[in-house]
Amino acid sequence: MRKIPVDFTGVRVTALLELYLRWLDSRDRHPILGDEWARQAVDRLDFDFAQFTSLGIGRFAVGVRSRMMDDWVRDFLGRTPGAVVLDIGCGFDSRVRRVDPAEGHHWYDVDFPDIVEIAGLLYPPRPGHTAVGASVTEPGWLDSIPRDRPAIVVADGLLNFLPEPDVRRILTQIVEHFPSGEIVFNITSPVVRKQRERRPVPVFVKFGISEQWFPGDPRDVEGFHRRLHLAEVGSPGDGSLLSRSPLYYRLLVALIGLVPAWRNAGWILRYRF
């Protein structure tokens, strides 16, 4: 089958990086996420994924956070009839296929138009699924999404790459668009920002990728809107999910946990509104 050419720069490259890390996880003997769609997608894209080899250890953190978010989405849909799912900055993620929502739950994937176009070539159409080609930082991106149903909104690997004013505006728009729901996303703390300043990630430098938002505490987000309330804090070092990872990685996570400054370097967060 003919490969699909990809020529990205900037933040769009993170869609390829996240896909690559899910693909690596799928190849592990005991995968955390086990996304078979990622394996097929990597094979279809004409891109040199070997550029990401040095970041391969990131597959464990990506596996944990994606698995946790999948579970949160399933939990929400199981107790919220008629709810919709909004996956913003979805990239080439196959989450809708992993979660496999029941009939009556419509799913919207939102990302740049060129990413949505390529994703449409990678994955077959699915009933109850709509892809929206739009930037979440531009006006009107929510216009095509129904506003009369509860929603769970996923931002997996997105918000770190936006400035705080944009994050605040996006979360406010979401809260005011839907009658009720949840928002789940991952984020890293200022500890990581200091590390990046001392030792930039070569792949990020090469492609012009910039991380911009590093909140100091998950509670800070509650100040963005009076209806936002922190419901759950997960960790990329979640022991129950990492039990399937290699011993060397579990030891590394344990060592990191002994350093107070690094113990809360990143979070997987769930908010209710």
Summarize the model shown:
The chain is α/β, with parallel strands linked by helices and 273 residues long.
Structure explained in plain terms:
The chain is α/β, with parallel strands linked by helices and 273 residues long. It has a single domain (64-272), classed as Rossmann fold (3-Layer(aba) Sandwich). It is 40% helix and 16% strand. The strands form 2 sheets. The chain has a 7-stranded mixed β-sheet with strand order 5-4-3-6-7-9-8, with helices on both faces. α1 packs across α2 and α1 (13-27) crosses α3. The radius of gyration is 18 Å and the shape is globular. It starts with a strand and ends with a strand. One of its GO terms (molecular function) is methyltransferase activity.
| Radius of gyration over C-alpha positions, nearest whole angstrom | 18 Å
User: What general outline do the C-alpha atoms trace?
Assistant: globular
Distance between the termini: 45 Å
Strand content: 15-25%
The largest pleated sheet is described as: 7 strands, mixed
SS content category? alpha/beta
What low-confidence regions span 5 or more consecutive residues with pLDDT below 50? none
Number of strands: 9
Estimated helix fraction? 25-40%
Largest sheet, order of strands side by side?
5-4-3-6-7-9-8
CATH architecture: 3-Layer(aba) Sandwich
Average predicted local confidence, pLDDT = 96
Summed up, the domain count is: 1
Keywords: Methyltransferase, Transferase
GO molecular function: methyltransferase activity
Protein name: O-Methyltransferase involved in polyketide biosynthesis
GO biological process, one term: methylation
